[in-house]
Amino acid sequence: MSKRINVNDLDVYYSDFLAVEGVNMTIEPRTVTAFIGPSGCGKSTFLRTLNRMHEVIPGAHVDGEVYIDGDNLYAPGVDPVSVRRQVGMVFQRANPFPTMSIRDNVLAGVRLNSKRMSKSDADDLVETSLKGANLWNEVKDRLHLPGSGLSGGQQQRLCIARAIAVAPDILLMDEPCSALDPISTLAIEDLIEELKREYTIVIVTHNMQQATRVSDKTAFFNIAGTGKPGKLIEYDDTATIFTKPSVQATEDYVSGRFG
Amino acid sequence: MSATAIPNSRRPRGPVPNALTSAQLPRFVELYTLLAALAVSAAVLAMIGFNIVGWLVLTAVIYLVGLGILSSVVENRRKATDRVIRGVVTIAFLLALIPLVSTLVTVIAGGAPALTWDFITKTGGSVFNPQTLKVTVVQGAWQAIVGTLIVTGIAAVISIPIGILAAIYLVEYAQPTQWMARTVTFLVDVMTGIPSIVAGLFAFSLFTLIVGPKAFSGFSASVALSVLMIPIVIRSTEEMLKLVSNDLREASFALGVTKFSTIVRIVLPTAIAGIITGVMLAISRVIGETAPIFIAASFTDNFNANPFSGAMQTLPVMAYSGYKFPSQDIAASYQSAWGAALLLVILVVILNLIARIVARVFAPKGLR
Ligand SMILES: Nc1ncnc2c1ncn2[C@@H]1O[C@H](COP(=O)(O)OP(=O)(O)O)[C@@H](O)[C@H]1O
Ligand SMILES: [Mg+2]
Questions:
Q1: Cα A123 to the chain's mean position, in Å?
Q2: Whose Cα sits closest to atom 24 in ligand 1?
Q3: Is the pTM of this model over 0.90?
Q4: What is the ipTM of this complex?
Q5: What is the DSSP letter of B6?
Q6: What is the pLDDT along chain A (259 residues), one digit of tens a residue?
């Protein structure tokens, strides 16, 4: 299920604008990796290159290689659609499909990929996915109601359930808790802890405590100034990054002396 | 609301129990001012000769000036401006309503006497009686109702798929800077402004080339209406598709869903209510077109349900020809013209109601 990510000298562009430069990184399977850094340093941009979501934006392209268990995502002939089936993504703003019920939202990935599925299989998938996202008990009596009627935290967990329902190997999360209250945040952090057993997880966060709580490794990104490309400054065990980082900028950032 | 909550609010300044209160005019001051303005202007006009238009205009002016002065004396300038602007906006709204309401009233008044069950279900026209050498006019709009439905229906069948697919191309597939997209957008803009008579001439000359002279047919009228309808459908669908949040598309892509499935299963269902409303409005926009249909389908009193040959009667053309080329019984012709006009209005109202119901049914549920 879980796979290793290998990033090899990756440059990320928006048309002519170089947003992220020269990233090298290896992310081990069954770990949680946190991306931290100031706004605009390219964390989201880089994250989206890991499942080829970056190129959805017109003019966006990359230069370099990303290997998932040895397969280069950016090799010629790779279909981004099949990449995205293996690398799921959860966004900053919870975005359940407004026309669909909770149940249909969970099944969306499978159904829209036009896989046929018996009703009992679908029921099982809905249940395991919602349980996997710690949402089952809260919604099991109203599966046919619209997903957009849930609270923000529940919607975000519904999106996680939707993402894991397609059985990806890797789960990318872009600030999944930034719009949530502390209780919902804790619920999602617990969930990440559990998901780690089966998935490789990469999470962008602005919350230092969250990074220390959930992640095994932490990557610190930074920019020299506006218009300059973002760079991976330091990548190490979370404990090391937060206690004795080897780069001064990292220490300034994690200790709050940044900028 | 707040006026009732604050007692003694008319006291201008001085010690007030609550530091946040300030002087306020009583609650129904606008109504009182309006009544006063009506009375004053009636009195003024009574001296120089009364007429209703002058009365209303003078009332409006006195109302605005009076309320402005009153409010700036008792309250303050900000509130005075607010009240005057509110008055101006309301008056503008009423002015906009006048032509609408008066048209509706005229059509109903003119058409209601003609509107019987026979009028709807019978094929009308002049009947010449050889014995008495008299021409009697049979009141009936059946041929025109059928014609209108056929002509507009075919136009809709042509325009809706083309329009929606073109809009999908523009929003989902084309890059905004691409020359193709720019050209299509430009052409759509130009086509939206095409005078309808040009569309009629286009269709008529096209079918004259294909079929030969006197190529009147319901179908060519449908083609003319399509020329008018396609840009409207494209525009409204485009707007609706643009309203669908990009987050939803990205969420779908991130699940490994193809672009096509994303459009068909996520984007279109989210926008469908708006798209249907837009389509319905486009239909009601072209259903009343007269000039292009008159050119392309001509007019006739005969019942003709075959869109591919011969002239075809339609409601707007029936209203026009009844007025312009009345039979010997002029009064009867005029009446059926009014009846046709009223039927057309009713048809448009029905279409709008359907659009509303459909939009309600398809709207995404449970949105906060
Ligand atoms: N769609 C886009 N088009 C062009 N530039 C973008 C786009 N999205 C982000 N950028 C730019 O890329 C840089 C990195 O942004 P982002 O990855 O969102 O940063 P972060 O997630 O770390 O806050 C910023 O300079 C931003 O302005
Ligand atoms: Mg971001």
A1: 26
A2: A40
A3: no
A4: 0.92
A5: S
A6: 688 999 999 999 999 999 999 999 999 999 999 999 999 999 999 999 999 999 999 889 999 999 999 899 999 999 999 999 999 999 999 999 998 999 999 999 998 887 788 999 999 999 999 998 889 999 999 999 998 889 988 999 999 999 999 989 999 999 998 888 888 888 889 989 988 998 999 999 999 999 999 999 999 999 988 889 999 999 999 999 999 999 999 999 998 865 4
**Percentage of residues of chain B with pLDDT beyond 90:** 53
Question: Whose CA is closest to A48, among B174, B165, B251, B117?
Answer: B251
CA distance from start to end of chain B = 27
Q: 3-state SS of chain B: helix, strand, coil percent to 5?
A: 70, 5, 25
Provide the H-helix boundaries in B193-299. Answer: 196-211, 218-243, 246-254, 259-261, 268-287, 291-297
Cα separation, B277 vs B343, whole angstroms: 21
Judge whether A157 and A70 are in contact, CB under 8 Å.
no
Tokens 């209780």 locate to A183
Chain A residues in contact with B245 by the CB 8 A cut-off are 95
Q: Are strands A17-27 and A5-14 parallel, antiparallel or unpaired?
A: antiparallel
Q: Could you give the count of Cα atoms lying within 13 Å of B84 in the half-sphere of its Cβ?
A: 18
The end-to-end CA distance of chain A, in Å, is 41
Residue type, B367: L
Angle A134-A137-A141 (CA atoms, 0-180°, nearest 5)?
135
Of the CA atoms within 13 Å of residue A233, those in its CB half-sphere come to 24
Nearest-neighbour CA in chain A from B50: distance (Å)? 60
At B240-277, the pLDDT tens digits run 999 999 999 999 999 999 999 999 999 999 999 899 98
Number of residues that make up chain A: 259
State the alpha helices, DSSP H only, in A32-176.
43-49, 80-86, 102-112, 119-132, 136-139, 152-165
> Quick one: DSSP state of residue B8?
T
* Cβ-based burial of A244 (10 A; exposed 0-12, middle 13-18, buried ≥19): exposed
Q: Which residues contact B275 (CB under 8 A, 6 or more apart)?
A: B164, B236, B237, B240, B241, B268
Interface of A with B (CB under 8 A): 51, 53, 56, 58, 81-86, 88-89, 91, 93, 95, 97-99, 108-109, 111-114, 145-149, 159, 162-163, 166
Residue A221: closest CA among A258, A170, A185, A189: A258
Residues linked to residue A203 through DSSP beta bridges, in sequence order: A34, A173
Q: Which of A53, A83, A99 sits opposite B364 (nearest CB)?
A: A99
Q: Are B62 and B54 in contact (CB under 8 A)?
A: no
d(CA B140, CA B337): 10
Selected for mutation to probe chain A from B257, B263, B267, B362 (highest A CB count within 10 Å) is B257
Instruction: Name every protein residue with a CB atom under 6 angstroms from any ligand 1 atom.
Output: A 14, 17, 19, 37, 39-45, 57, 230
User: Coil, helix or strand for B36?
Assistant: helix
* Residues in a beta bridge with A220: A36, A234
User: Is the pLDDT at B19 greater than 80, yes or no?
Assistant: no
HSE-CB at B206 with a 13 A cutoff on CA atoms is 17
